[in-house]
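Ticket #4471: structure export looks truncated?
Reporter: QA, pipeline team
Priority: medium

Steps to reproduce: submit the single chain below to the structure queue and open the exported record.
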Amino acid sequence: MERMGAAFNERSMRSMGSDWLLVDENRSIHLTPRLHSEYDKAPSIFASNRVRTSKYTWLTFVPVNLYNQYQKAANVYFTFISCLQTIKLISITDGQPLMLVPLSFVLLISMVKDAWEDYKRKKADRFENRQPARVFKADDGRTKIKNVEWADVAVGQIIELRDGEFTPADVVLLHAKGSSGQTPTVFIETKDLDGETNLKMKQVPRSINERFTGLEDFQDLTGTLTCEPPNEHLYKFEGRMELIEMGSPRNGYQGRAPETIPLTPDNVVLRGCKLRNTEVIYGLVIYTGHETKVMKNSVNAKYKFSKLEKATNFTILVILCFQCLLASTGGLIGTLWIDQNGRKRTDRTDCVHFKGSWCSSAYYILDYELMYLDLILEYIKMTGTWILIFTNFIPISMMTTLEMVKLGQSYFMQ
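Actual output as written to the record:
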């Protein structure tokens, strides 16, 4: 799907006469001396750097949350009981769904708790997307560093990162200030990625680092960076940078033959890494947003079930089976009793002259002639009535208490 979409946009950009971006099975970023002045005008064929970890939107919150809540057996059970209570033929509440009142309270408490947790996710996403970043821009033929938000960082842009700052996207190192040695070394902290507090070393390819003496050299950057498509492998990266012509007469690289430089995981800094003990680095953005390696490894927020909820679901199913067994037995006994006592006996000769209790219909069974249309219907009616009588086998007060306790715990855990 990604490849098909990329091919479509590639044809669109060719029709516009733009030639600095090209995508195939691998990711290829074509760089021009215009320093991406046309990139901002062209339609992006890569993922936005805006991230979203929340589960709901304003439109999907109610239906999706209700769907998640009805994964609980208790909510399904009490909704079923509420529906039975509306059937006057079997209802013991005169057709009023009284169970809906506490059930609605339980659902509302859960929705409030989930809405609060998702709001905190949205707030964290908004904070991260609005973090400041510095990218290189071409303005009136000159190279300038412009402040943008993380959400506006795009593939193919060159960013500046200073000591103590976090990386807004996956970048390939181009230059490092404040590092010594033939191969400039960059120190990063990956505590937010893997929990490790020890510093890790990254390296800038020497042949790339020594070509830069100022901002003008980035403006003269010409070549192609080809790398693997976005994937979840944090410690794997394969790519190469083909420099056609880069530099100015000041550094002696202008006009030299093309050079191909291999790239390894040591040359890549991932999103969320913190720069340490290094003055400034410059990097080329290769993956953004949900295509970065850390986001590829993140799991979408799902509705979680605790061990207590799973045990409760199983217990409710067992109790429901036992309840249905008792209700069926009660319905069967009641149907047989009505069959024997609910109508006048005319099949015995001794009932013609004597009116014994077993010869006449039970006085408290009203309109039995109308009700006694079918023994199966009578059995179903009696069974449904017994189910409603046994409703308290699963007390809804227990579910209300659990939801209140979880809401209180989520508040104190803050």
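Status: closed, not a bug. The export was complete when the record was re-opened. Leaving a note from the reviewer for reference: The radius of gyration is 36 Å.
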